[in-house]
Amino acid sequence: MTTTRIGGTLAAVALLALAACAPATTSGPQATVSLEPSSSAIALPPAPEDPRPDVVWPLTGLDAEGAAAADLDRPALSIKIENTEQARPQENLHRADIVVEEYVEYGISRLVAVFHSDYPDSVGPIRSMRPMDKNIMGSFGGPLIFSGAQGRFIDDARNSGQKLLAEDVGSSGFYRKSGRSAPHNLHGRPEQFAAQAADMPAPDEQWAFAYPAETATAQRVGESAARLDITMSPRALPEWRWDDAKGLWMRYEDTAPHVTDDGTQLSATNVLMMWVSVRYTSGDAKSSVPETLLAGRSGAGYLASGDKYIPIEWSKAGQFDPFEITTADGEPVSFMPGQTWIELVPNEGVSHSTAIDIS
């Protein structure tokens, strides 16, 4: 086979010959082209505004932009409220930011009502402390307010560093209200309680709030719910029913609406239901008091935010640490802004059956 190779000189001659045969050209003025934006381009929308208000109440996540600085800086008041039939209807309980329902002697329940965004003129009836109360409210940063307790519980709470305000230790702000017999008639004035705790800080947020509210964890991934039936004991049967028109969970006591003394039915945006263990504090049947175990503990439960609910896991590292609420997969849970009730439902340490039924 023969290969023909064209060297550099022959190639140059060939190129000159081609150039000689090409027609002559005349160059004219150069045109300048400027590119203008197309009239059909789509303008980008402005960045959406942050839906979280600039200032919020830490325990509800609600807008606090118009609140006075002194009100935002005041302490959260954790007040023990009686919840027997003789104590209902309570005074101004519906104005608490957070309410915790706990199991006590004889199967009745008692409440820890936490007031920060709203200080009513008066609240009550106020009753005695229990050993778990310091752990229930320690993360709120303010005083524990009560009337009476066994000396060992008072000493334990005081030695833990918890500030205590009580009628029987000389604190002011308590008074007896007419129309009821003792001990169901002791009420108190939050402004006077706060004056005795002026050196205490405002509370921190206890959990994340979702903005907008419909992005809360239960709203995004939960199942629909219309009724929460809780059995703490045969004598403690709280119930919550979803009111679509109000967008709230409405509270009932053994099927009857649970109302305050001005006729307002208690309600909540979030209902946190936690399975808890209970132990008795002594072997003496006359003096033994059930204690809900919280600090250093963990468990399961449910969170209803709006009209949906999810299973949750809870834990609490210590007395002054907040509850950590996660999904079953360990992801942090966000709440809808609004009032929250926490139901501490025993499933260990009691001799009767308990239940959380969601439908």
TrEMBL record:
Which superkingdom, per the lineage?
Bacteria
Ranges for domain DUF3048 come to: 59-198, 229-342
Signal peptide start and end residues: 1-19
PROSITE patterns in alphabetical order: PROKAR_LIPOPROTEIN
On whether Kinase is a keyword of this UniProt record, the answer is no
Q: Which keywords are on file for this protein?
A: Lipoprotein, Signal
Q: What is this protein called?
A: Lipoprotein YerB
Organism equals Demequina sediminis
Q: Which gene encodes it?
A: yerB
